[in-house]
Structure formats: structure tokens, C-alpha cells
Amino acid sequence: MKKILVLEGGFNEEHEISLRTSKEVQKSLKRMKIKFEVLKVNPKNFSEKIKLYDKNFLCFNALHGTYGEDGTIQKILEKYKISYTHSDSKASKIGFDKNLTKLKIKNSEVVTIESIILERNQIKINLLYKIYNKLNSFVLKPVSSGSSFGVKIFNSKSDISKFFLNYDNEINRYKNHNKLMIEKYIRGRELTVSVYENKKTTQAVEVTEIFSSRKFFDYKAKYIKGLSKHILPAKLPKKMYKQCLFFAKIVHDELGCKGISRSDFLFDEKNIYFLEINTQPGLTPISLVPEQLSHNNIDFDTLIKKIIESSL
User: Fold this and answer.
1) Exposure winner among 18, 147, 184, 260, fewest CB in 10 A?
2) For the chain, where are the alpha helices, taking DSSP H only?
3) Which of 10-14, 174-178, 289-293 has the highest mean pLDDT?
4) Can you give the CATH number for the domain in which 166 is found?
5) How does strand 138-142 pair with strand 152-154?
6) Element housing 153 (H / E)
């Protein structure tokens, strides 16, 4: 078996989550007595550092967010013909871009929410008022970002006014994101589904419903224990439950994802709406993917082993 090189860190909003994922992966590899090394990734010198490793290594990609999850590092590893876990550069690039994902699946049965794409400098008060008059409530978020960074819900014109009263600080949260997406805000139940690759077949595992103590399942709710509650399996009508699983598998397959993915949905008691896919979901102690697989009698070590095997 190839020696494992765990890639961790990176320089983006999800740096800390990457370190947590890496820590759990390392503990698992130790339990399984699999040899590994750890490389802290710095985008400035990664292309040079990776040359020190040969084709006998397999990179376990424990990175999240920009550079590690958007197809960039995947392309570098492909250039040097070094194997790595999770999705390839093409699937990663599409999956990290919410708009590209929607375009990729637009001819499928998956239901999405109509969206508007804007550049950061187009965010003006009169434009947001016009959008509010058309959509009533809406959501503003980066086209490419993970862990719900930068998600802002506007439920009233006063929300828009408050945003522009504190404009410099508000717009600064998008300083690393030129393209932004606006979607109609649909009040509904937050759902998520893991898709798991086992022996080259993909299986949508379970549907979890998420109750957050915050406005929605944001960064803090995802990674601070006690700020969210997971209902597994989600208490949905049987037809809707199956549809959610079906949609998650379609998205995974349409993008050509590999190893593992997690897709998020909204259910408004009528329709299941696809929100986004995560091609490198977190593997922390409170992450959703390990929880769903554990519910299906697949322990963490087996998950890590299968992710590695799917990359060989």
C-alpha cells in the first residue's frame, strides 16, 4: 500500500476546520497502523514542496475551502502524477462553484432555487431594493465558499438599510469573493445527505435534519458543539426522504465526484430544493458525514480506509 501524505492547513476561512479533520484522519491512520506523513500546505510553496514526494505517496486531502477544495491543488497533484483522495480537479472546481453546479445539473430532475449572479462591486442599495421588491426575502452569499461563510439573509428593507449603514464591514466579509449569488429565501427544513463510494458504487447514505440555535446552519452552528441538533434519520414523508437521497446521488454522479460528498437541501413541506454540494466534507468529531455513516454501522476507520481505497 502507498504511504499516506496528509495535506492540512491552507490559508482561508476554513484553515481551523482542516486542522481538525487532519487530526481525526491521523488518529485513524495510527489505529489502522498505516504509515503516514503530514504536510502543512502553504499555497506559496506547495508546488515546490510536493516535488519532494514521489508516486509511492497518496495524498489524503484534509483541506477545506479555497485552494484545497476548488480544483487548484488537485491540478497540481495531477501534474506531478501523485494520487490523492476525494474528487478530481474538474469535479472539485464545479462543486466549489454554486453556479457551475446548478448549470451542471440543470437538465436533471434535481430542483434548485433560481439565482442571480453579481460581482461584489455591483452590490448597491437601489439594486437590493429592486431585488427585494421582486423576491420579498432573499439570501446573499459567495458563489464559491464553504462552511456557510458570508451567508446573509435579508427579510425586510430595514435589513438592507442596516447592511449599507455598516457597508464597509459588511462588504469586507466578501473581500476574497468577487462573485456573489442572490437566491430567493425559502423558509424550510434544513437537510443534508452523504454519498459514499464503496467498491466503485455510490450510495446515498441517510438524510439528517438540522436544527440550529442560530438563524440557519452557519459556521458556528456547524463546528461549535451544542449550537445545532441533528435528527437522524430525518422525520420526512417517505416519498420526500427517498427523493432527497435520489437528488444527492444525482448531483454526486453528474459532477463525477469520488470517495465522499455531502449535499445540502431545503424542504418547504412541498418541494426538496438542492442548495449546494461539499466535495470534501468535514471529518471532525461533530461532522455530519461520520455521524451518518456510523448510523449505518460504518465506523470512522472504515470510512477513511474506503476513501483511500477509492483513490488507488
Assistant:
1) 184
2) 15-31, 46-49, 72-79, 89-96, 98-105, 125-135, 157-165, 167-172, 219-223, 238-255, 288-295, 300-309
3) 289-293
4) 3.30.1490.20
5) antiparallel
6) strand 152-154
pLDDT at residue 218 tops 60: no
pLDDT of residue 169: 84
Q: What is the C-alpha to C-alpha distance for residues 216 and 293, in angstroms, rounded to an integer? A: 24
pTM over 0.85: yes
Amino acid identity for residue 226 in this structure:
G
- What's the CA angle centered on 70, arms 175 and 232, to 5 degrees? 100
Residues 180 and 192 in one domain: no
φ/ψ (deg, to 5) at 247: -60, -45
Q: Which residues pair with 61 in a beta bridge?
A: 7
Q: Please report, for residues 6, 204, 236, the alpha-carbon distance to residue 287 in angstroms, rounded to integers and kept in the order given.
A: 19, 17, 21
> Do residues 100 and 224 both lie within one domain?
yes
Query: Domain range holding 147?
Result: 115-184
**Lookup: cell for 256:** 463525477
**Tens digit of pLDDT for each residue in 116-142?**
999 999 999 999 999 999 999 999 999
42 & 71 share domain: yes
Position 215 scores a pLDDT of 59
Among left, alpha and beta (phi > 0; psi -120 to 50; other), residue 27 is alpha
Pair (195, 298) in one structural domain: yes
pLDDT at 63 over 80: yes
Q: How many domains does the chain have?
A: 3
Predicted confidence (pLDDT) per residue in 138-172, tens digit: 999 999 976 567 889 999 999 999 999 988 888 88
Question: Cell triple for residue 155?
Answer: 427579510
Question: What's the CATH code of the domain at 223?
Answer: 3.30.470.20
